Amino acid sequence: MVFWERDWWSKWWEKQRQRDCCDCECSWTTAIVCLVVLAVLGGALALLVLAFAVLNPPTASADDALLTRFDLAPAPNSTSTARPPLQLLSYNATVTVSLRNPNLHYGVTFGAVAAAFSFNGTRFDESGTVPTLDLGARKEAAVRLRVGAVGRALPKLTAAGAAEFARQKDAGVFEVEVRLDTVMQYKGRKTKCPLGIVCPLRLQLVDPDVAATAFQKTKCTVLRAKISGC
């Protein structure tokens, strides 16, 4: 009788221990499932916050550019010794700038875009314009600019600027800056945001009758006004 009681007790204790271990394993499994669900819900919430609460500015890059003429010469009748002689610039340039809207939800509208070309801090062309442009969420558009002139006066170009032009001409590569100015507005928002896009370019002078050299894609800097909602 005594041995039977001991054997019964051992079996009962073993069953209890196995049941407790099973409950332990189930508890761990449940905890892991809960953590996975919480992680998925947290990721979905973060995505919603990024899509609806965070406004990201557009990005821009100069994807292609071609310079087929860039000549600087003093004006024929410029004889004043009080200041550097007036310089005349003849040029032909084509630039393609890509604008991208990185937002997951909000579209972007750009007002009329004014383009300006500069050399050594001196603007030599402000004739480029682009009409109103709409960019949906996660979309991009290419803006193509073409400018040219013969004998355009550069009254603000200094003697140092003319010397820098000669240096770059000898090197065979000109450093030209393209700037786009516009007013941007996120769709569904009332705030209008002044926006500037600056693209520094290194351009090799190319013979238009010869195959163009490869242009290295260049990232542009986006300048935003410090206004709430921009």
Automatic annotation (TrEMBL):
It is a single-pass membrane protein. The chain crosses the membrane at residues 26-55. Residues 96-187 form the Late embryogenesis abundant protein LEA-2 subgroup domain. Keywords: Membrane, Transmembrane, Transmembrane helix. Coiled coil: none annotated. One of its GO terms (biological process) is defense response to other organism. It comes from the Eukaryota. Its main location: membrane. The keyword Transmembrane helix applies. It is found in: Membrane. GO terms for cellular component: plasma membrane; plasmodesma. This is Late embryogenesis abundant protein LEA-2 subgroup domain-containing protein.
